[in-house]
Amino acid sequence: MKINPDDYKPHEIWQMVMIGKPIKRFPNGYFSGASYKEKFREIFQYICLVHYQWELEEIPNHINNYFLKENKLASLYYSVFHCNMFEMLDTAFPGRFHPWQLPFVPNGYWNLETAKEATIWLIEEKLHWTKNDIKKKMTKETFINNGVGCLYMPEFNGSIYKALCNAYGNDYLMPWELKCTPMSYWNDDTIKLPLQWLIEKKGYTKESIMNLTEKEILEYGFYVAYTLCHESLIQLLDVTFPGEYEKVGNDIYHLPSHTRSHRNNRDNIAGVIYSKHLKRWMVYATQKGKTKYIGLYNNEKEATNARIEFEKQIIKERKDAS
């Protein structure tokens, strides 16, 4: 049976095709001419919003080959849209969606520019995250679950940090500020970067950095580097700035530059020992292989305190001399 397409709305034509009465396929030339997009748009929106009653945001999740076949749209996908799923979706909802919101993006879609656009969309439009949110919450699953597959393009190789740098620039944040920095990131070179970064970017000095607390280290995100140095700030300082710091008791000192090249020649406190003969505690130091005795004390605590005070005095004298 023939019908006059102009007597029906586009979705009514689609309903006829779906039930096979009075027509089994779209009329010849129905999707040609200047009005084909408007006709397709009315049909597609009717299917999604009326027939299935999908929420607008969830529509891309359903657009696949099965959906096209079930709704007699597969022929249009091939003949009108040339197998471009996003072109079909964008024709139906102009400017409303992005390619990565579909279950599959077109082959070859991802490059640095599309990755930048998708990453910014994910953070600012989809999630409405601040930088602190990114630091605390961002994982690979955040990208995957929202269809942003650019994370695995060769330029990023699964690195969230590289994807963020591509979107916002290299100074946006540091790798250790992310909750999912891989252990493989840390090596002899990268372990030096956090303290250098605090001085270069965060207003610390080589003196104030000696007073870093574990709370600050946690807040800045490089606790792994701290742990690799046996949770010792003096070890992390010495790895980053070799020979520039010395610890005496619980205090850390930044050494004058002219003393650093003579570390092997300056006083080295060997420790505190107990003299069975004298029945007292003894503190001593060595200098150029010679032993220097500091004093005798009644108990280990007094001797330890004396050793610490002696070391502090040595460092003070070096600083005064500088």
Tell me what portion of residues adopts beta-strand conformation.
5-15%
Report the end-to-end length measured between terminal Cα atoms: 104 Å
User: What's the story with the biggest beta sheet?
Assistant: 3 strands, antiparallel
Question: Spans of 5+ residues with little confidence (pLDDT < 50)?
Answer: 262-267
Number of strands: 5
The gyration radius over C-alpha positions equals 35 Å
Oligomer: single chain
Q: Output mean pLDDT.
A: 88
Helical element count? 16
Give the fraction of residues assigned to helices.
40-55%
SSE order, one letter for each helix or strand: HHHHHHHHHHHHHHEEHEEEH
Order of strands, main sheet, comes to 3-4-5
Question: Could you please describe the fold and organization of this structure?
Answer:
α1 crosses α2 and α7 crosses α10. About 0% of the residues have low confidence. The chain is rod-shaped. β4 and β5 form a beta hairpin. A three-stranded antiparallel sheet has the order 3-4-5, covered by helices on one side. Strands 1-2 form a two-stranded antiparallel sheet. The protein has about 325 residues and is mainly alpha-helical. Helix content is about 45%, strand content about 10%. The protein is built from 16 helices and five strands.
Features:
single chain, 322 residues, 16 helices, 5 strands, 44% helix
